[in-house]
Q: What sequence folds into this?
């Protein structure tokens, strides 16, 4: 894997994510509140789930999405572009909404513990998807390309770094995050 290209794509993914988060925080509070209500309804069945089941669901959800971002990067990098932008925008909306009701301490307690691992991992998977997308573009243009090689390298990184990172983030999300939320929301 060409480290220079990967770093450039990681920078691009980071910029897109940051811009999307910023745009999400500027979305109207009404839109943010509606989105949070819909998300709450969607996640309501998980409220009664045990921690191990919740850990499994969170890990599986993130692992499948991360793998999809890498593999579907073959479509000129467009799915990773949509993924990182949509996730950033939604995260910005959640931050804005939760902050207006619960305050910054609650936002930080709910996102930072697992987000410090999960966000860089998702930026990495997006960068890998962009790398594969660029090679696909070169293939379409009938230029020398390394689509198969980049895909193979990306899947190795997925197994070596992405899956363990997402598993660690899921463990933190179901164990440490609720504990911290209890600390910041107690009177």
A:
């Amino acid at each position: 894997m060409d480290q220079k290209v990967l770093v450039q794509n990681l920078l691009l993914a980071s910029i897109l994510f940051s811009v999307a988060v910023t745009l999400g925080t500027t979305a109207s509070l009404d839109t943010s509140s509606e989105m949070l209500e819909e998300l709450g309804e969607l996640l309501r069945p998980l409220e009664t789930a045990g921690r191990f089941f919740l850990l499994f669901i969170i890990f599986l959800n993130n692992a499948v999405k991360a793998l999809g971002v890498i593999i579907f990067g073959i479509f000129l990098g467009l799915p990773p572009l949509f993924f990182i932008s949509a996730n950033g925008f939604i995260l910005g909306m959640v931050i804005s909404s939760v902050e207006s009701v619960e305050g910054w301490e609650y936002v930080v307690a709910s996102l930072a513990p697992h987000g410090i691992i999960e966000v860089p991992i998702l930026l990495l998977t997006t960068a890998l998807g962009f790398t594969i997308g660029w090679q696909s573009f070169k293939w379409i243009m009938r230029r020398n390309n390394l689509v198969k090689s980049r895909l193979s390298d990306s899947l190795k990184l997925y197994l070596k770094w992405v899956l363990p990172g997402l598993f660690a983030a899921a463990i933190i999300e179901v164990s440490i995050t609720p504990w911290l939320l209890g600390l910041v929301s107690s009177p």
Summary: The mean pLDDT is 91. DSSP finds six helices and no strands in the chain. Helices lie at 3-25, 29-43, 51-71, 78-102, 104-140, 147-185. The chain has one domain: 3-182.
